[in-house]
Design goal:
Blueprint: E1 11-14, H1 22-28, E2 34-38, H2 42-45, H3 48-58, E3 63-66, H4 75-88, E4 92-97, H5 99-111, E5 134-138, E6 150-155, E7 160-165, E8 173-176, H6 186-204, H7 212-234, H8 239-253, H9 266-278, H10 282-297, H11 302-313, H12 322-339, H13 346-349, H14 356-362, H15 377-388
Parallel strand pairs: 1-8, 2-3, 2-4, 4-5, 5-8
Antiparallel strand pairs: 6-7
Helix pairs in contact: 1-3, 4-5, 6-7, 6-8, 6-10, 7-8, 7-11, 9-10, 10-12, 10-15, 11-12, 14-15
């Protein structure tokens, strides 16, 4: 096991009706004027936004609103938010929605206290050294942004999708009411579940040895997703299944399942170019890319993939040829994604093979990238080609 620091300062407020406590939570965490950032649609139709505002009113906490967050958050909305924050004297940001709303809120939090262009943090020109406090009211189990310091934004000029991260961006509190998942379309639930599983896989496939505790934690989260995702899709009002799904999303990305081990993150980087170019849901892109990445790299450590197959998918172990078991596990993963309504190849996603060289080039790989298997630009092109024609 590698040396590690683990820091997770977020207060998680979990359960039915907990959004009605937002006002007192903002005051507890030092907010005196709030920017409420949200997308629209379900948070308005469900009455969630009104409940949040009523809670702030009850505690006499003033606020301003900024709607219009997009599924793949864009820099223009971040600039709009930064301008509003500075104009209104906001000192606390409340994201009401899913990972995209939270990501753009985090970008606003960092950009509003920085003299330069917030994009400096995403292109690697500068690191985040301060940020306004952020909190969340979560509406979907997916990105894990409610407990992480990570954020991903798309720069519309060139459609560059890039990430940044800092402990300054970890939410002060996150309100998590599993009942809110009932307002989310089933396709988005499936996309979110895929993202959760990908967050675990990016950590599970490692070259670090003797990490038994985090191996078992990773497998537990993956098994939970295999059980609970179909239950939630079948009955969005199944509170217990929704509760397990929502908490799994948080556990998957606070890094509690990733400490002490090298991580990969190539699948996320490869997928980002898909969702930047085609504006597809991040989870849908991951459903196409992650099994294809597995197809490309499994021979690097067949036993690791055989463990994935036997412990998560219940495959029988072929001790004479572990590669057979490894491939069976990858196929089980693909079948599961298909069963919950996810695309598994370019045709189903709406992507085009002729765009493969451009997407690989936009990753800007200098030499190699990744932690489990180091990939070149040519390797990334091959993974895209596997994804283009993938089948069950």
């Amino acid at each position: 096991m590698n040396n590690f620091n683990f820091y997770s300062p977020t207060e998680f407020v979990f359960g039915k009706g907990r959004e009605n406590e937002v006002g007192s939570l903002v005051k507890k965490h030092g907010g005196s004027k709030v920017l409420i950032h949200y997308g629209g649609g379900s948070v308005i139709r469900s009455g969630l936004l009104d409940r949040v505002k009523a809670s702030l009113d009850k505690e006499a906490v003033p606020y301003v609103e900024l709607g219009g967050a997009k599924p793949n958050p864009v820099d223009s909305k971040v600039y709009e938010g930064i301008d509003l924050i500075k104009k209104e004297g906001v000192d606390f940001i409340l994201a009401v929605g899913g990972g995209s709303t939270i990501d753009s809120s985090k970008a606003m939090a960092a950009g509003s206290v920085y003299d330069g262009d917030f994009w400096d943090f995403y292109c690697g020109k500068e690191t985040i050294k301060a940020a306004l406090p952020v909190a969340t009211v979560l509406t979907i189990a997916a990105a894990g942004s409610e407990g992480s310091g990570d954020t991903v934004i798309t720069k519309e000029d060139g459609m560059l999708k890039r990430g940044a991260g800092s402990d300054y961006l970890r939410p002060r509190f996150s309100v998590m009411n599993p009942e809110l998942l009932a307002t989310v379309p089933k396709y988005q639930i499936a996309c979110g579940a895929t993202d959760i599983m990908a967050h675990v896989c990016e950590r599970y496939f490692t070259n670090t040895t003797e990490v038994e505790i985090t191996d078992r934690l990773c497998e537990a989260v993956l098994c939970t997703m295999v059980k609970e995702t179909p239950r939630v899709i079948a009955d969005p009002n199944n509170y217990e299944a929704m509760a397990n799904l929502m908490w799994a999303g948080t556990v998957a990305h606070t890094n509690i399942v990733g400490v002490g081990r090298d991580q990969d993150w190539n699948s996320h980087g490869i997928e980002h170019e898909l969702s930047a170019m085609y504006d597809c849901a991040h989870g849908a892109g991951l459903a196409v890319i992650m099994p294809s990445w597995m197809d490309f790299v499994y021979k690097h450590n067949p036993m690791r993939f055989a463990e994935f197959a036997t412990r998560v998918w219940g495959c029988a172990m072929d001790f004479e040829n572990p590669e057979v078991t490894a491939k069976e596990g990858i196929n089980c993963f693909r079948k599961f994604l298909k069963s919950i309504g996810m695309p598994i190849n370019f045709v189903e996603l709406g992507a085009k093979e002729e765009d493969i060289p451009a997407m690989a080039a936009k990753m800007g790989i200098e030499g190699t990238t990744g932690g489990f298997v180091k990939l070149t630009t040519a390797d990334v092109e091959e993974i895209y080609r596997i994804a283009a024609k993938a089948s069950i």
